[in-house]
Write a structure and sequence with these properties.
The complex is a heterodimer of chains A (587) and B (468).
Chain A lengths: L3 E7 L2 E5 L8 E5 L4 E9 L2 E6 L11 E8 L1 E4 L6 E3 L6 H8 L18 E5 L6 E2 L4 E6 L5 E5 L6 E6 L3 E3 L4 E6 L5 E5 L2 E4 L8 E3 L10 H6 L7 E5 L6 H11 L4 E7 L3 H13 L13 E6 L5 H20 L3 E7 L1 H14 L13 H9 L3 E4 L5 E10 L9 H9 L2 E2 L4 H5 L12 E2 L2 H11 L4 H25 L6 H18 L13 H23 L4 H6 L2 H6 L1 H4 L8 H18 L2
Parallel strand pairs in A: 8-21, 19-24, 19-25, 20-21, 20-22, 22-24
Antiparallel strand pairs in A: 1-2, 1-6, 2-5, 3-4, 3-6, 4-5, 7-17, 9-11, 9-14, 10-13, 11-12, 13-15, 15-16, 18-23, 23-24, 25-26
Chain B lengths: L4 E2 L3 E3 L2 E4 L10 E6 L4 E10 L2 E6 L11 E5 L5 E4 L7 E3 L15 E4 L16 E2 L4 H6 L2 E2 L6 E3 L5 H11 L9 E10 L1 H13 L6 E7 L4 H21 L3 E7 L1 H14 L13 H9 L11 E9 L8 H9 L2 E4 L2 H5 L12 E2 L2 H4 L9 H25 L6 H18 L9 H12 L12 H7 L5 H9 L1
Parallel strand pairs in B: 9-15, 13-17, 13-18, 14-15, 14-16, 16-17
Antiparallel strand pairs in B: 1-7, 2-3, 3-6, 4-5, 4-7, 5-6, 8-10, 11-12, 18-19
Helix pairs in contact in B: 2-3, 4-5, 10-11, 10-12, 11-12
The chains are: A alpha+beta (587), B alpha/beta (468).
Chain lengths: 587, 468
Amino acid sequence: MQSYTIYGINGPVVTVKGGRGLAMMDMVNVGDEALIGEVVGVDGDTTTVQVYEETSGLMPGQKVVSQGAPMSILLGPGLLHNIFDGIARPLSVIADRSGPFIHRGINVPTLDLEKQWDTTVLVKEGDTLRPGDCYAQCPETTLITHRCLVPAGVSGKVTKVLPSGSYNVEETLVELTDRLGEVHALKLAQRWPIRTPRPMAERLPIHRPLITGQRIIDTLFPIGKGGAAAIPGPFGAGKTMTQHQLAKWSDADIIVYLGCGERGNEMTQALDEFSELLDPKSQQPLMNRTILIANTSNMPVAAREASVYTGMTIAEYYRDMGYHVALMADSTSRWAEALREISGRLEEMPAEEGFPAYLASRLAEFYERAGYVKTLEGKEGSVTVIGAVSPQGGDFSEPVTQNTKRYVRTFWGLDRALAYGRHFPSINWLTSYSEYIDDLKPWYDQNVSPKFMADRQRIFTLLQEEEQLLEIVKLIGSDVLPEDQKLVLDTARLIRVGFLQQNSYNIIDTYVPLEKQFRMMELILELYDGARKLLERSIPLSQLRATGIFDTLSKVKYEVPNDHQERFDGYHDQIQAALRQVDEANR
Amino acid sequence: MRLEYMGLSELSGSLVALRGVQGVAYDETAEITLQNGQRRYGRVILIDGDRVVLQVFEGTRGIALDNVRTHFTGEPIKLPLSKEMLGRIFDGAGRPIDDFGELYPEECRDINGSAINPVSRHYPRSCIYTGISAIDCNMTLIRGQKLPIFSGSGMKHNELAAQIVRQARVGEGEGDFAIVFAAMGVKNDTADFFRRSFEEAGALQRVVMFMNLASDPIIERILTPRCALTAAEYLAFDKGYHVLVILTDMTSYCEAVREFSSSKGEIPSRKGFPAYLYSDLASLYERAGMIRGRPGSVTQVPILTMPNDDITHPIPDLTGYITEGQIVLDRDMDQKGLYPPIAILPSLSRLMKDGIGEGFTRKDHPDLANQLFASYSKVQDARSLASVIGEDELSESDKQYLQFGKAFEQLFVRQSMYQRRTINETLDLGWKLLTILPKSELDRVDDATVEAHYVEGAWKSVLSELDQ
């Protein structure tokens, strides 16, 4: 084996001399503490390595050892209900080893190697297995059954098999002999290089929404399972809040929450909260379906660059088992900045705003790993990606936001002005869009109501009309508008306050099923239509306002519990009563 | 044996390079001795084979290529620590500059610190009462939080910070308070102002001060907050103090980082700041927090002056992305003589939601805060309309908002530098002011809460105060 030594050090970038044997993207151990790094450049006998840990204390002449394989992580049972750093080291184990502060050079395996899993082996000697076939399974948490699939590129006849029982992740359960006579050992865990997308049988069109229980998302700007969305917003606009809400309530089977260059306290909060909160469907703690990955803003920047791939690989791994996975990345801008920082240290030629020229292609590679697929095994699974973007100065024209926009089909633009008015979620309905509306219409027609999409369009149109009217109101006040335009303003206000605003701290309002969202829309439109009829008879809107019906409807969201939707009937009666009262007063 | 390298091979700005160096580690400290016996300190920032680049903290004035000897200490920069630091004054690099001589350290620690493991963090939930209504009600400061003050030159951020220091209270019997004060590139007057106000509050024995004044070397300025936070972590997590860290002025700090970066010839990013400014700031701000199973806490109140009052400038921008909220000061309010000139709408405390309400402050606190924000944001709409069509033409409801806005600013936000309102006084006052608006306008509060706190006409008694 060739030996390599450190030649130069500049922050996380280390140059290595001693031969030509190192390949691009190989994983290496650097220095006496065996810090983990990755080869990012080869030039003659000089190799450039980015190190995923603090490099202070490294000296020229210390040895560098190649792992002979690209950066890969161990995948298997035990990922769920856990929190990892950017290169998939379990933070709780690191805490046991080094106390509350993270020290470097702690090489711990991703998974607990001792833990015994109650495994059912599903194959017998003589079976022929192909990539993607399931050979064993074990209950990983109360919610998720972990299914072990034959890795890509491996196939053959089962020549040796263990009976079902308790095993740790390192025991060989099945031996597979391929055509060339080579024996492959299949265990509960397998390794996969993080930068390589995991294979699938084929991509399927997106046809089901990811239901999030957030009205503005599900109704106005839905995202399909297997889709990609971006949430850009200035600080304080509620990106993290929105991501947390989605992680808590969306109907994915598994959530991978990636805290990329963000606050430590937020990860702690997610960990605490997800352990306490119960999943609305199964009444199990949310952590049972969640994997947290934390590279907080003060952790090494090179590991930040790797963390998004770690998260994506884990998401794909569960997708292959036939699960619907949602990956929340908060925030992709920090990842792009990590790219920029490392690119600067490598002295590459910068493109726009100092970002490397390959920013767009890296973003594309990442978002294109999302998708609704038929797995190698023939099941359906999906990875939905929701990436927060933190544009500098809240300016959406900067490179990360612009390049992200090219590869996502749902865009939830957060707005500083809405956040200042404490309108949450502060998703601006005029700048946001979803390209999945047409793909998802059949599903909504079938599963909610055929009227759903038509109602959505009407609500949306009212909001747009309001925007135009507000331009006029800014100049002359609302009193001088004609009555029908006043009605548009009042209805739009009702939509904003009573429908779009959603209080995540209110037990009833924090998660709203589609059925209820639809009925809320119906109520608002019923009032609007009824009021229009009154106006046609030249009855002033102020009379209807005086009945207080607008205020009543704006609080429906707090008053109708999700499991008591029959209470909506009472509101229909109230609307009709109010309309009748005004009607009769003018007879 | 003390190994020394004679002379230098290159010299540029605050950087010097040596050739033929063996066995030197990245980030280690070096002592540079000049011919006249003067000693300076430096840090290894680049190793390329046998060439080593050092940054010299005190600057390179008087250094020539052949008049110095360099000795590598084999260690990163460490700060001597002891409980005796309380009441002492240090320079920007952590050397005592008062008359009490050297510190006898209990231990020495790397000033760069290490990241707190998110698993080991204790999520902050207990609030610090500052006695300032706008802060306590609308952007509650939580122990273990980092809540910066975004200000501009000439505004009263120092006074506000001093008032927070004077009035901040934690609950009874919850441990001792200590203050770590780091001055980075501030004027002599400002440093003196803080020293006097600590004295006034009788707090001088609980304060550790690190002083890098405007005329001190900029490389040292880069060390100042790191020294301060190392001291704060030590006092909090080893000695159990609740430490409030005041860092002022972060703008000078960032400019020092920029100056240093450009002297290294790095590729600049926005406004000439280096691309790693975010990571650099994060390595400071993230050192706030609490740790499971340890008694103390580190709360940070960094102060920064927004160049040209521009909140989208990289310094406030990056800071806002890292810190847990911000207190923004407003030029207009300041010019009107309103103290504290806190701009309510852009200010925010991200941690308050979990540290207020039932069991913490008062059950109605979250609703009230939310409603005050929402109503006050409508005041802005009414004001801009009034400026176009005149106040007389406004609708009745818009007029009520104008009245509410004025009362809110003059009675709720405004308070004297020495006035301390309890949380109950603050919340009750908030409810009274809300009664200027009709009940139907309170759309952020459920009906039961409104019924419990909304007393028709309660505002009249408060407003008469305003007339006086």
